Amino acid sequence: MAIQWSLVLFTVLTGIAGWMFAGVAFDSLRGKNQPKAFLAGLIALIVMAVGGIASVTHLSHPDRMLAALSHPTSGIFVEAVLVGLAGVCMIVFIILAKRGASAGAQKVFAVLGAIFGIVLSFMAGSSYMMSSTSTWNTVLLPIGYLCTSIPGGLGAYLAVVGAGDRDSARLLSIGTIVGGVLAAVASLAYVAVTGFPASAMAPLWAGCVLCGGVVPVVCGVMGMKTPERTATFGVVTLVGGLVGSACFRVIMWQVFALAAVGAPYITNFAAM
Q1: pLDDT beyond 60 at 65
Q2: CA-to-CA distance for 81 and 86, rounded, in angstroms?
Q3: Is the dihedral of CA 252, 254, 257, 258 positive or negative?
Q4: What is the pTM (predicted TM-score) of this model?
Q5: 263 by DSSP, 3-state: which?
Q6: Cβ distance 110 to 3 under 8 Å?
Q7: d(CA 120, CA 103)
């Protein structure tokens, strides 16, 4: 099966959007960076919407989307619901932020939107788990989807708010460090369990670990040392996170293709 680029784009962008809005929620709860909350929330909403549209283009007949959503137990239904719920919460939040509504109301919708967005970054990977596809039938796949979304999302948020609040910038920089470590470990764990050798697809493997893991860690450390450059390091983290996240998803499709042709080093999860 060829790489489904529309699905790669969907899961990468919605994951970034969910974790970016998690940054919005984090600062909203602490009452920090409020002047930029509207802009950050709006950008997260746009990215989520673009990701959702990419998902629809995967269907050979997009006009049949409603029919595809008629099965509540399907992965596409769960993903669509989560995208919708996250999007609604983001919309309500940015309206409240624009109007200067009560901080309490803003916090409620910021947290709810972040929860739905984070859960979506996991469920987008969980949808591929099926006994008929051994290389995907492991919880390490959705965990990888979740973890590889963290650096890019937090990096995107830092790129918007910068060092408006030094304490917040420091804490979120720590978040990118943790996210980078988790992204690298999750990517390596999935690759190791599938038996996918680094030599078979070195650029993708390096993209996961170096771009998605090392770059966010280095930028997080540098951001803590020079907070006035937080926005710059946020942009670099975002780029690295995007590359690492995309590489992880491409690897998922590649191991599927290798398993389909009987590559000897692909582990059969069903036999474990």
Answers
A1: no
A2: 8
A3: negative
A4: 0.89
A5: coil
A6: no
A7: 26
